[in-house]
Amino acid sequence: MKICVIVPVISRELIKKGEEKKRYGNYVRPDTQVDYVFVDYGPASIESMYDHDLASPFVVKKAEWAELNGYDAVVVTCMMDPGVEAAKEALDIPVVGPGEAARQIAPLLGKKITKIYPRGLTVLELVEDADKTYSVLLKDAKKALEQGFEVLILSCTGLTGIGKRLQEALKVPVLEGEALALALAQLFVDAGLSQSKLAFKKPPKKKRTLPGYEA
User: Fold this and answer.
1) Closest CA to 126 of 140, 114, 112, 113
2) Average pLDDT of adjacent 10-residue blocks, the chain of 215 residues
3) How far from chain centre, in Å, is Cα 105?
4) Shared-domain flag, residues 90 and 133
5) Phi and psi of 165, rounded to 5°?
6) Which of 13, 71, 107, 156 has an alpha carbon within 20 to 30 A of 205's alpha carbon?
7) What are the CA-CA distances from residue 156 to residues 99, 137, 173 (Å)?
């Protein structure tokens, strides 16, 4: 099985080459091939609907590339799920976003759910100082627990890899959307499932003039 993970930003430093397996750990079987690819155009990070909409068409184009190149499923690694619904329309293979994966799974683990993020840090700053990122995130997580929340969702895939450490410290479920999306994508392929074409109809063929859409 081959799963393509589309990184919807142009900042290569956010996911270091050779460290991809550390991001999803035991969520993916050893015999499943996971390849990370970046979009050709788009924002440096996604922190607004402006960034979301700028990235989306290039996510879809990269998803189409993945299907043509023999991938069995596509995951888009951003909790805002840019281009995910559009890619579901364009592709026949499963497409999963980490935001939707976390939202669907969280209610199975608890009743009071919230997202957490290290306040005051931008997405690009998350990878600059891992200890600082964790320290600030831990404070936000503890505040959420004091407010009665039972399940925590990391609200940015730039935090991927921190969840396990945080979960061990707090003794509550901490969800990482990217890993969950990969696990779901693998499950869908194993089960022979993909998005319904009644819900996600194929887009009509027509000329599109965005970069990469000339053909």
Assistant:
1) 140
2) 97 79 87 95 94 96 97 98 98 98 97 95 88 94 96 95 93 96 97 97 87 66
3) 14
4) no
5) -65, -40
6) 71
7) 9, 11, 16
